[in-house]
Amino acid sequence: MKTLKTRTDLSALNDQQRKAVLSEANRLLVLAGAGSGKTKTLLHKINYLVTDKLVDANTILAVTFTKNAANEMLDRMILAADQTRYYKEFLQTQGITFKDKYRERVRFLNKFPWLKKLTIKTIHSLCYQIIKTDGVHVFDNQFKIVADQKIGNEFHGNTATETVKEIIEKVAIELCEEKAFILKLKRFLLDYYVDHIPDNKTSEEFRPEGKHFTSLNGDKVRSKSEQFIADWLFRNSIEYTYEPEVKVDKKVFHPDFFIPQGNVYLEHISNLSYPSFWKEVKMKIAGCTCIKTYDDATHNSAVFNSVLDRVIKGRISEDLSSATVLNYDEEFSPFRKELKRFYREVNEVRNKIENSEKDLQQIMDEAAASKYERVRVFYELAIPIITAFQDYCTNKSYMDFDGLLIKTIELLENNPKVRERYQNSYSHILVDEFQDVNNLQVKLLNLLTTKETQLFCVGDDWQSIYGFRGSEISYIVNFKEHFANSELVTLNLNYRSTDPIVCASTEAIKKNEFQIHKDIKAVKRGGQKINIFYEENEGQEISFIWETVEKHIQDGINPEDILVLYRRSAMASELKKTLDASGHKIQFKTIHGAKGLEAKVVFILGLHSNKGGFPDPWLQDKIYQVIKPSNYDLLIEEERRLFYVALTRAKDYLYLISKKGAVSEFIKDIPKEFTLLETNAIDYGTNRVFLCKKCETKIEEHYKFCPECGKSIEQNHSQNIKWKQKKNVEQQIHNLPINFERNDEQILKSRQKFKRAYEPWTEEEETLLKNCYEDFSITELSEMFGRSKGGIQSRINLWSTNLD
Ligand SMILES: Nc1ncnc2c1ncn2[C@@H]1O[C@H](COP(=O)(O)OP(=O)(O)OP(=O)(O)O)[C@@H](O)[C@H]1O
């Protein structure tokens, strides 16, 4: 590319990056893969605008998605401006706090006044400023921000002391003062989060055998009808015993219920009940009153209610109209986890409704028409909570993040003078992470720009991962249709990761249909292949990661340059505890939270196909489909983009953690040429499979030679032999008796991990260890013997010292 003389130093950019910086287009999309210098290009563009184009820094607005990204942008601008290199050294100082960074950032911004004039903000922060200044037309401008979590000082302390989650529970508690509501909520939690009644079966069909239905007072009963009776008794505050034992003539009977207040037994008759004639006769002889209800009546709950009113209430002397008031804490104390999940789902629904085109009434009508009881009841509970939440926030002058956008749009749409003022304020608008914009954000950008405004967007459609929060990947994929007369520059060199990581991630994402094809090349050639670990037994993954982390730290990698990523926080909790206890301060992040980050060593947890693994297309839940129908393939595509983001955080070493026999489809998508098989064998079905060390062909265990290159399995696959040897030793250890009876808490805990923790070594065990310890690593021995690594090592040390 012909180089144009510029005052800004653009020598650190490649041709495409420079083309983007120099472009005069009023609408430009810089489309790139991960690690290709999007942010770097955007920052050079700002420098170029101010230095070469003499644009007033006051009129430049750079929009980021997170506060951290805005701070990082500012830091990178300061680093470029600071010739003394002091700021670089400061940022590299170990242990500096967030506050230290903030103070130093402000000090440096004061040193470079033009930097201070720039507006580098999150989109929410920009809206906040607009509403604070001009929002009196649309809201109480003394409002406070309310967020899902406690937030820092982004809004100058103007934040509510309570979080969204706290308010949701608060208004729900108020609604629970009405008995019908609290009982409906409890019934919902019990049916769908405790008993897990599936959508596609009628309740009656659901596991008719065994006691699988939880009644409102927590008993497990055998059928939906019995649950109905138990619930009816509970609602009416009538005490009962479920399946009491009755002895008549040395025979024991178990009628369904005993109601002491009326001294009656109740037997519910269904086509699954055992013949009751004989039982009845015997009970009558014994003088017990036994009333019956029939399954036919249960098909209509109103009918069944009146049956119970008639047959039971008449026999009870006490006045039931003064039935007890139910207490929220008492009712839900055994179900806090389920309640938390329910509120989380209500909040997801609330967020989605705010971002959707539909209003509450429409959602309510569509939910009421759902053919699934679970969906109908969920909305019967959620809509009153969401309405009460909105009223509460208006009353307190609270605004949430989506509210900020909605009110700003309303303000700019309805007040042309205010809109023009903002349009004139910004001649250049630069947007980072453009792939994650949603309808509201694009609406806002359109309101802030005129034909003359330069809109410079950078993004990567492969990294669009906020569809679940309403972002629309189509804005980046169809940029030209949304922004007339736009131009496109593509960046296709990855500076971050090694060749196998770039190739593997590019191959993985290519499985998506909805994407823009890009030919990404790694600048760093060579590098270690991706390491896949297949866990065979519980706890192995922790040992593997622990040892690998230690190995990298010994090799000189800074623990802060090691990143553990996961789809859901629960996947990492055990590992985090273990590593924290070992004193290693490595970074743990959800993949969503790792956006924009990079690290030398990355582990991705939970890549298995079982429930709670990865991919996890949770939005296919029918509850969310009421707001916006989404098809399964598109949800998997978003999961795959999330996988791509995770893979591309790694600079040099990448470890994927999976489970033997339940390998995530995403791992199978990575071509074998980019992966390395370390500790365990892959289970592709019933046979154990190894990769030939010479040509990496899959070879089943029973093969004598590699069918591809002819390499002998016996010679080449010591792993295979070793595996058999290991199984043999494990079997022998398994057959040894456990001789130790102590049950201290610490020992029990340790036993969950190591079967023989604290048990004295027996002669047989010691002989076994002596025979095989040279063939295995300490970790393998620890797994085989069910003892800690320290325990094994000290045993071995003992003999070596004795030998000396
Ligand atoms: N032209 C270049 N020459 C050398 N290094 C570069 C160049 N462009 C970018 N880099 C380096 O590549 C790395 C990634 O850059 P940057 O963070 O700007 O990428 P990105 O595209 O925004 O990444 P992502 O979208 O994956 O978060 C950084 O370490 C950056 O310094």
TrEMBL record:
A GO term for molecular function: ATP hydrolysis activity
Pfam family, one: UvrD-helicase
Residues engaged in binding ATP: A32, G33, A34, G35, S36, G37, K38, T39
Record-annotated UvrD-like helicase ATP-binding domain positions: 11-498
InterPro entries noted in UniProt: DExx_box_DNA_helicase_dom_sf (IPR013986), DNA_helicase_UvrD-like_C (IPR014017), DNA_helicase_UvrD/REP (IPR000212), P-loop_NTPase (IPR027417), UvrD-like_ATP-bd (IPR014016)
Listed EC numbers: 5.6.2.4
Gene3D superfamilies per record: 1.10.10.160, 3.40.91.30, P-loop containing nucleotide triphosphate hydrolases
Reaction catalysis annotation: Couples ATP hydrolysis with the unwinding of duplex DNA by translocating in the 3'-5' direction; ATP + H2O = ADP + phosphate + H(+)
Protein name per the record: DNA 3'-5' helicase
Organism: Croceivirga radicis
